[in-house]
């Protein structure tokens, strides 16, 4: 009789211990989960993932002098940023309500184009009115080139002031800054002088 009572008590103690173990495990899991994720209404937890399904608004009636929020990353690495914005494909990562210029804000592309794809609004011509004797080749033709100022971009070009008895054999850009023309002026006694005119963008 006594042994039977003892066995029943032992089984009850084991069952109680198992239930307490499950309860402790659930409490630990719930505690870790709540510590790892910040959700709507919670404080913003640093160093962990925060989840929200509503906008987080930072503002005030009068605001502050200077920036409202500052992010500083002093990591010594070379691939660090202070901010990363991620959105789904086709969505803008940033919206602003001001058209005021932002100093030191550099952009790699404008409407998908590099800055080299846009022409300067300041253009000029070189060579006009500056007739020069071309370089005479062995076949009697003459070649002359004209270049834009250093650092500027060639837009177009061509020969000018060519004698009516001469004939332009070819005219083309040799690179992004220089235009070259070749003229057959063997019919002109003593040779001819002509010029190459270039249209350049002031970059």
Can you characterise this structure?
With 203 residues, the protein is of the alpha+beta class. It is built from one helix and seven strands, in the order αβββββββ. It has one helix spanning 2-36; strands spanning 123-126, 135-136, 141-147, 153-160, 167-173, 178-184, 195-201. It is rod-shaped and about 90 Å long. 10% of the residues are buried. The model is unreliable at 21-28 (pLDDT under 50).
Order of helices and strands: HEEEEEEE
Helix proportion range: 10-25%
- Order the strands across the largest sheet as they lie in space: 2-3-6-5
Low-confidence region ranges: 21-28
Strand tally = 7
**Span of the ends, CA to CA:** 106 Å
Q: Number of helical runs?
A: 1
Report the sheet-strand fraction. 15-25%
The secondary structure category is alpha+beta
Report the major sheet. 4 strands, antiparallel
The rounded Rg comes to 40 Å
Q: Give the rounded overall mean pLDDT.
A: 78
Approximate shape: rod-shaped
């Amino acid at each position: 009789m006594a042994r039977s009572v003892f066995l029943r008590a032992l089984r009850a103690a084991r069952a109680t211990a198992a239930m307490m173990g499950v309860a402790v495990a659930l409490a630990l899991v719930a505690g870790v989960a709540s510590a790892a994720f910040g959700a709507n209404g919670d404080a913003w937890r640093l160093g962990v993932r925060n989840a929200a399904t509503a906008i987080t608004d930072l503002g005030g009636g009068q605001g502050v002098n200077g920036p409202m929020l500052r992010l500083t990353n002093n990591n010594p690495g070379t691939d660090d940023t202070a901010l990363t914005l991620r959105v789904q494909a086709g969505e803008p990562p940033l919206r602003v309500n001001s058209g005021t210029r932002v100093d030191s804000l550099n952009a790699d592309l404008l409407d998908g184009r590099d800055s080299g794809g846009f022409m300067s609004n300041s253009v000029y011509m070189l060579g006009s009115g500056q007739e020069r004797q071309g370089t005479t080749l062995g076949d009697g033709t003459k070649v002359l080139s004209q270049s834009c100022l250093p650092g500027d971009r060639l837009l177009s070009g061509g020969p000018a002031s060519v004698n009516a008895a001469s004939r332009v054999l070819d005219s083309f850009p040799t690179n992004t800054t220089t235009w070259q023309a070749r003229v057959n002026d063997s019919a002109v006694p003593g040779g001819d002088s002509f010029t190459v005119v270039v249209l350049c963008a002031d970059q």
